[in-house]
Amino acid sequence: MMKNVAERLHSKDWQQISDDMHECGYSLIKGLLTIEECQELIELYNDKASYRKTISMERYRFGAGEYKYFRYPLPDLITTVRETVYPYLATIANKWMEVLQSSHRFPSAHSTLREQCSEKGQDKPTVLILKYGAGGFNTLHQDLYGDIWFPMQAVLFLNEPGEDYNGGEFVLTEQIPRAQSKASVISAHKGDMLLFTTNFRPVKGTRGYYRVNMKHGVSPLHSGNRHTLGIIFHDAQT
User: What one-character-per-residue DSSP string does 166-220 give?
Assistant: First the structure.
């Protein structure tokens, strides 16, 4: 019997994922979603009732393309991924806080993080689905929506590169101290999930750990259509 998505997530090598996050600030989990689940999410794109806001990237100079923020309650598949992944990432995030000698700690349950967001007026879901056509791209950015934020997020890839689209690579940049930025280009396939830092990662230097600023974006598509689902764990005010 095919495992459900929560079982699939629990079966992943979370020690290796943790090592990747500490070392690189990202980790690619291959083959998380089935072809049917990817198609289900793509088809959901046209269900107006599922969304609270639609953003044209050109209007705000965010790039070229469109994305939509879901409204609560989220679809069951998305809720399951969000709530199953979060505790694993909270453990990693708290290790980051520890090595950076910060007293801040993230709660172990996602419901508690949402309660903290709500107390600050952040009660709107930030989970979003994005669609790019030929020429579409997303400028480098960080997804911070208020005083309460979580330092890691996820993106689910719903189309197959080379078949559904060409170009449109996921890009992460890392600010090297006293030098130029380094870019990482991640090749992901349909059904893969990428975990990555929202805004920084700790790096060990000669005098201990320090924060390295990171941003993410999408390179221009040459042809076809590309859908992705972004899972951000903190909520927004608007």
Answer: EE--EEEEEE-TTS-EEEEEE---TT-EEEEESSEEEEEETTEEEEEEEEEEEPP
Could you identify the residue written with the tokens 């453990």?
Answer: 91
Cα separation, 82 vs 57, whole angstroms: 25
Q: Which residues contact 49 (CB under 8 A, 6 or more apart)?
A: none
**Residue 106 DSSP code:** -
Of the candidates 87, 134, 129, 139, the residue with the CA atom closest to the CA atom of residue 111: 87
Q: How many CA atoms lie within 13 A of 7 on its CB side?
A: 4
Among 205, 209, 226, smallest CA distance to 132 is for 226
Q: How many residues does the chain have?
A: 238
- Tell me the per-residue pLDDT of 120-171, one tens digit each, with 9 for 90 and over: 999 999 999 999 999 999 999 999 999 999 999 999 999 999 999 999 999 9
| Contact of 232 with 198, CB cutoff 8 Å | yes
The pTM (predicted TM-score) of the whole model is: 0.96
- Looking up tokens 């934020």 gives 149
Dist. CA 95–CA 134, nearest whole Å: 41
Residue 217's region, left for phi above 0, alpha for psi from -120 to 50, else beta, is beta
**Beta strands per DSSP E along the chain:** 26-29, 51-56, 63-64, 66-70, 128-132, 137-141, 152-157, 165-167, 170-175, 181-186, 193-197, 200-205, 208-218, 221-224, 226-232
Residue 40's nearest CA partner among 80, 72, 13 is 80
